[in-house]
Amino acid sequence: MASSSTSRISLLLLVSFLLLVNSRASSVSDLDEELAFLAAEESKEQQSHIGHEEHDQYRDFENYDDLEEQGGGGGGGEYHHGGYEGEEEPLPTVDEKDVAVLTKDNFTEFVRNNSFAMVEFYAPWCGACQALAPEYAAAATELKGVAALAKIDATEEGDLAQKYEIQGFPTVFLFVDGVMRKTYEGERTKDGIVTWLKKKASPSIHNITTKEEAERVLSAEPKVVLGFLNSLVGSESEELAAASRLEDGLSFYQTASPDIAKLFDIETQVKRPALVLLKKEDEKLARFDGNFTKTAIAEFVSANKVPLVINFTREGASLIFENSVKNQLILFAKANESEKHLPTLREVAKSFKGKFVFVYVQMDNEDYGEAVSGFFGVTGTAPKVLVYTGNEDMRKFILDGELTVKNIKTLAEDFLADKLKPFYKSDPLPENNDGDVKIIVGDNFDEIVLDESKDVLLEIYAPWCGYCQSFEPIYNKLGKYLKGIDSLVVAKMDGTSNEHPRAKADGFPTILFFPGGNKSFDPITVDVDRTVVELYKFLKKHASIPFKLEKPATPEPVISTKKADEKIEGDSGKDEL
User: Fold this and answer.
1) Is there a catalytic annotation at residue 571?
2) 374 catalytic, yes or no?
3) 225 or 56, higher pLDDT
4) Please, what's the b/e burial string for 435-456 (b: 16 or more CB within 10 A of its CB; e: otherwise)?
5) Quick check: is 32 catalytic?
6) Which of 129, 297, 411, 440 is an active site residue?
7) Of 239, 275, 373, 559, whose Cβ has the fewest other Cβ atoms within 10 Å?
8) Which reaction does it catalyse (predicted)?
9) Which residue in the list 309, 465, 482, 490 is annotated as catalytic?
10) Could you tell me if 279 and 249 are in contact, meaning their C-beta atoms sit under 8 angstroms apart?
11) What is the tens place of the pLDDT at every residue in 445-456?
12) Confidence of residue 201 (pLDDT cuts 50, 70, 90)
């Protein structure tokens, strides 16, 4: 009896095992069959374009502006894609003994331990980086004792490159006392680097000991910082000098004379050390009331050196985007309405120094008004105020109400208290969205992309992007093949006119995959060859809901009227994939 039971169990185990093996084999067989079908379809498509291949190969590169776009940002870096026929010329040997090599493990220690540290983010394949290498190495040798120079391979140290928003190569930063302060945009030569760094590292504080000197400074300087100290040497002077190295674009002075201090609107009986910042602008004077340390002084100067409200112009852009304060409070208004609303914004700005950069965008300016308004999703002609969190997360919060001091202050306070719901750009909802590739806009993103019952593949594109245009027919074919699969959505979104916090594009096109039942986590970036077959393989691997390709039905063979039992000539008798 026991033997019979054991045999029965063994038989059941054997059957289960065979079923499992058969199931897996069937699954593998199905995938192979589906991939074979897709490959055959692609092969047919390619065959139909024989004779046009050479023309098509170069079509992607007709728009050289797309290549320039990739090299933008981060100090005007450039991508160089060199093409050589035959053997590549070997790169010259460069003596880089005085250039430190940084990784994530020694980066922080290096910039902290060197008062002035220049750091280059590079890529090994970048031609511009290779051209800079000997100049950079020679500068490092000459600057020993003044500043330390280092380099980081951004292709290996991706986390550091992402932290500092590296978008092109080479990108070169100056760190002062461990803090990134400036992007180097000067000449890429030894002399250019040496001259620039020596100027940054030299003492930038000057003594004023006579009334004549004071009057000359007040007359000639548009902005000036004056420290009224107990002595022109010692710890107070050292803190002021250290703060001066952290700030560009204005001069620092010190005096120990009460009579000279009075010329700068400092009361003679004030407790020393005292500090003021004078500007030839609407707000002429700012008084420092913090601890007399380099950090506190630098923060005060950074918050007060810019106008209360910065006009968005080419000249003013650096004051906005290179400011250590990233949150921006922006007024959009036409020129003829600015006089009404700018005084209101300036009044609000006085209460939020160091918290926001206040900006005015002239909506009807022909050079930039329409472009900037479009970037922020501001439509119509009515004045608007919004808060912008900067380029890191790009959230926007629009004031819904009249542009009064009280309402704008409330907007700022609610933002700082994290009480506001962000605004995201969106195109109008599509009237018909039954195509092979679903159209996603800001307002239907949650409904379609974040539907937990669907696996969603999303392409984020730009209409002007040449690579996106080349990829479009491939993506459309993928959508056509997968349209009949209810659990799977192939979709696309214009990333220039639509936004969503879950759809962040590193460039165009960006392809993201949102698995069903898992939408609370970040999407998977699709990093495979942009072909129908490779994208299909990715989906089969990552889809949370298994699916099978629905191939079109094979047409019934045509039977000859002559011989009913003969198939048409050339028919193999097998289903064609």
Assistant:
1) no
2) no
3) 225
4) eebbbbbbebbeebbeeeebbb
5) no
6) 129
7) 559
8) Catalyzes the rearrangement of -S-S- bonds in proteins
9) 465
10) no
11) 999 999 999 999
12) confident
